[in-house]
Amino acid sequence: MSRARRLPFTRQMMMLQVAVVAALGVVTLLVAGFFLRSTLQHQYEQRALSVARTIAADPGLGDLVARGDQPKVASAAAAQERSTHALFVVITNDRGVRLAHPNPDEVGKMVSTDPDEALAGNENTSIERGTLGLSARGKVPLRDTAGRIVGEVSVGFAATDISDALWRVLFIVLPWALAAVLVAVLLTALLGRRLKRLTLGLEPSEVADLVREREAVLHGISEGVLAVDTQRRVTMCNAEAIRLLGKEVRLGADLDELALAPDLQRLMQHPVEGGRAVTAVSGRRVLVAKHRPVALEDGTDLGGVLTVQDRTELEQLTSELAGVRSMTSALRAQRHEFANRMHTVMGLLHTSDVDDAIEYLSDSVKFATNKEVSENPAVQSSTIRAFFAGKQSAAGESGVSLVLSEQSWVPRKLVAPVEVITVLGNLVDNAIEAARSSTTRPARVEVDLLSEERNLVISVANTGDGVPPERAESIFVGGVSSRGDGRGMGLAIARATAEGLGGDLRLTATGAEDTETVFVAVLPNVLATGEVQEEL
Fold first, then answer.
1. For strand 401-404 and strand 224-228, is the pairing parallel, antiparallel, or unpaired?
2. Which of 86, 231, 482, 530 has the greatest number of C-beta atoms within 10 Å?
3. Among 254, 249, 212, which residue's Cα sits nearest to residue 229?
4. Which is nearest to 237 in space by CA: 260, 254, 218?
5. Residue 408, CA atoms < 13 Å, CB-side half-sphere
6. Is the peptide bond before 293 cis (omega within 30 degrees of 0)?
């Protein structure tokens, strides 16, 4: 309720501005009045002194005072008082007794202020209060024709004259001060209107609340958010975006300085119509990215916002599921084959054809031991054997011969079967697709598996059309393959998985001049230690 009654910020700012300007005006007037009053007092003192000097310079006045001719002295003083508009012109003898005074009753009396300094031959000025009130006065000695001091001349101007002059000056300045206040009010109002336009009519407290809420939302969501303005400068970036992009993002940095992944750069330059999501690879991560232009209701362009989500784990699970499906298909086929053999042996035994049953079993064992992978003693990983058996069937359906090289040697079980099958599966799938779509016949894919202590080296060669040398690195970028853009994420995921293990995946032969295309992956520490044993 208190917030609802609070004055708008622009009105508060206007009131504060007016108060500040008014206070400055009052202080300025007071300071100016103080110095102006001091200046006027000095000027009136000097004016009184100047008039007193003029009167004392009359050559006959001193002789009249020396003779004591009071009527003539009073007449001369009255004439000077009228002509100079002074408050008083007082003339005394050498004892300080008045011979002329505006009030006749004061004639013949001692002056009310000390005459000693003037009778000693010195001039002086002062602001003093006498019988006629407060005045600015000047006193000079009066001399006769012989040069002797015979009295003093004292001239005064009323202090009210000083005050009146001061107020006249202040009334001239006051309209200008009021004009300054009005100008300040006008400028404050214009500034307030501009501020409301810039803040879309929100009060500063509301803007602060929005900023706090924005920070809470941005750093609380699971998506990475990166915003840029119309000049492609970063205006906002949350912690999740920094983590997913794998880069330190500085506010105000140019977007080109960030060196984003090629997919993300293309998306920022050419947003997908409708804001649809695209898949991109950034470092070791597979990301789902969206880019939306941002504009006001009037169409003013404000830049754009890039949102990214991590799909690395989902892609790895998808690859794992594909491997599991291959193994399941292979096991299902072997189960049917084993059941058929058992049924045949059981029938032979029921008919008492023991010799035929023994011969059949001998042939079956011979057939099984001739299996290239399923009973290959050089490959002791049941995961690899099951995977390879399933892939051989799939390759055969595509018209591609999938073989395991005679040099293959995997004497231990896998401790990272998911990662190994992810890399091996993507390489084999790409090789089968390349060999199938090529005109080279027979279509063939050869896999070579070699172990060195706990490390596994996978080499996959195919008889496909090869990879152009200029695309040797771009094929590892998400959404790019040797057959054009937008072909999926297989190689990108495989390389990211290999690098996640501390290894590498590279293209060692591009397939030029009728040679095979070869990919080699090095996977460290994926084999178990100790004696040879099977995965469960």
1. unpaired
2. 86
3. 254
4. 218
5. 24
6. no
Give the residue carrying structure tokens 């959404």.
Answer: 479
CB of 145 closer than 8 Å to CB of 126: no
Contacts of residue 364, Cβ cutoff 8 Å, sequence gap at least 6: 341
Rounded CA separation 419/146 (Å): 131
For residue 136, list its beta bridge partners: 127, 157
Mean pLDDT of the chain: 78
Max CA pair span of the chain: 184
**Spatial CB neighbours of 375, under 8 Å, sequence gap ≥ 6:** 368, 369
Q: Is residue 231 helix, strand or coil?
A: coil
DSSP-derived secondary structure for 306-373:
EEEEE-HHHHHHHHHHHHHHHHHHHHHHHHHHHHHHHHHHHHHHHTT-HHHHHHHHHHHHHHHHT-SS
CA atoms within 13 A on the CB side of 257: 12
Taking the C-alpha atoms of residue 68 and residue 83, their distance in angstroms, rounded to an integer, is: 24
Q: Express each pLDDT in 491-521 by its tens digit.
A: 878 888 888 888 999 888 888 777 889 999 9
Q: At what angle do helices 417-437 and 312-350 cross, to 10 degrees?
A: 80
Q: How many Cα neighbours within 13 Å face the side chain of 363? A: 8
Tokens of 109: 């009396």
Place of tokens 């501020």: 195
Question: HSE-up of 23 (CA within 13 Å, CB side)?
Answer: 6
For residue 387, give both structure tokens.
């995977």
Residue range 93-126, pLDDT digits in tens: 988 898 998 888 888 888 888 888 888 889 988 8
Residue with tokens 């990919």: 519
How far is Cα 228 from Cα 234, in angstroms, rounded to an integer? 4
Identify the sign of the CA torsion 312, 317, 318, 320: positive
Phi, psi of 105 (to 5 degrees): -65, -20
- CA–CA dist 134, 351 (Å, integer): 154
Number of Cβ within a 10 Å radius of residue 245: 23
Give the span between the Cα atoms of 113 and 139, in whole angstroms.
11
Q: Which stretches within 370-468 are classed as H helix?
A: 382-397, 417-437
How far, CA to CA in Å, does 461 sit from each of 31, 68, 303, 428, 468? 96, 144, 47, 9, 16
